[in-house]
Design goal:
This protein has helices spanning about 10-25, 40-55, 70-80, 100-105, 135-145, 165-180, 195-210, 220-230, 250-260, 275-285, 310-315, 320-330; strands at about 30-35, 60-65, 85-90, 110-115, 130, 155-160, 185-190, 215, 245-250, 265-270, 295, 300-305. With about 325 residues, the chain is of the alpha/beta class.
Length: about 325
């Protein structure tokens, strides 16, 4: 089951241990490099989770930097290293290009912990990683699609930010399955996690008169944008519709779309990683050996045919559609 909050037992340990450090004016200095909080509902939840955990009350002096560009993230990481942080927590925008920065961290006794995304770097350059298996997410989704047994597969493939672990894993699994099964990918473009760009991609396919019956979007926001284009063109979608809709991240509002039958599939990606990171840092601070270098969070896929309200309430991240509307009205 997705773990959304630090467990009471762990929280107690951290509060006692970290409060002692705080009282001794020995806060653990942490630099956190992450993707833009506005990237998606997933990222917003991820950022809020980390901010709630890495506080002075819990014994941390935490600084945050956000970007969807690898070079900007690298510059931020190097600044944190120069500032003398104890730990560098990293969710990389791109899987490559980090070797020099991680070596600088090692040379300056900065402990690196990856979260959310993997990178292509020697494992000796980081202490641990807390990640989703993006390839496994994609394979689960592609297997589900194969099980639908369509007479033909004509797929619009909307990709996330190119080079990110999420994009590479989710794209790779679909492309491999398409090649093995003889499916046709009629359009393949990046919308960079953006709903409006996804809508434009689907609209261009519609305007060209190209036939399609599946939209495979690599996050929920892009799936939402794709559906907006279908609705504008009066093309049916979801259960018993003409087009299968697939997304990722399990935003609560997206799972509600599944429950209503407007979408067909949504792949889980767990944004609540602070519990794992706190536990790793606590062990390292106490001189303990880490049992695992790589912690892969368990995740699943949801089908409109079987999803329940309990699934929505348990696994959905962020606000549901009605809550989001209420918040907008309040603003």
């Amino acid at each position: 089951m997705m773990k959304k909050l630090v467990t009471l037992a762990l929280a107690s340990v951290m509060v006692v241990g970290m409060a002692a450090a705080a009282n001794a004016d020995e806060l653990i200095k942490v630099g956190i490099v992450n993707n833009d909080p506005n990237e998606s509902g997933y990222r917003t939840a991820n950022v809020e989770d980390l901010k709630a955990a890495f506080t002075e009350e819990n014994g941390f002096d935490a600084s945050f930097a956000y970007s969807l560009k690898n070079d900007e993230q690298i510059a931020a990481a190097q600044k944190f290293i120069q500032d003398g942080v104890d730990y560098l927590l990293l969710s990389a925008a791109d899987t490559s290009g980090w070797d020099s920065t991680l070596q600088d961290a090692a040379d300056n006794d900065v402990t690196v912990i990856l979260f959310d995304r993997t990178i292509d770097a020697d494992e000796s350059l980081y202490a641990a990683s807390v990640v989703s298996d993006m390839r496994a997410e994609g394979e689960t989704a592609a297997a589900w699609l194969k099980d639908q047994g369509l007479d033909s597969y004509n797929i619009i493939h909307i990709q996330g930010v190119m080079g990110s672990a999420a994009q590479e894993g989710r794209s790779g699994a679909l492309v491999d399955m398409a090649e093995a099964e003889g499916w046709t990918i009629v359009e393949q473009q990046t919308a960079e996690w953006n709903a409006e760009k996804a809508q434009q991609i689907v609209q261009s396919v519609i305007d060209a008169g190209t036939e399609f019956n599946v939209i495979y979007a690599e996050n929920d926001d892009m799936a939402k944008g794709a559906v907006a284009a279908l609705d504008k063109a009066n093309i049916s979608h979801g259960v018993d519709g003409d087009v299968i809709i697939m997304g990722y991240d399990c935003n609560k509002w997206a799972l509600e779309e599944l429950l209503a039958g407007n979408w067909n599939y949504d792949g889980q990606c767990n944004p609540f990683q602070s519990e794992y990171l706190l536990e790793i840092i606590d062990k390292l601070e106490n001189g303990e050996e880490l049992e695992e270098k790589t912690i892969i969070m368990e995740e699943k896929g949801f089908d409109a045919a079987t999803i329940t309200q309990e699934d929505v309430d348990t696994y959905g991240i962020g606000a549901g559609s009605s809550d989001a509307e209420a918040e907008t009205e309040a603003e």
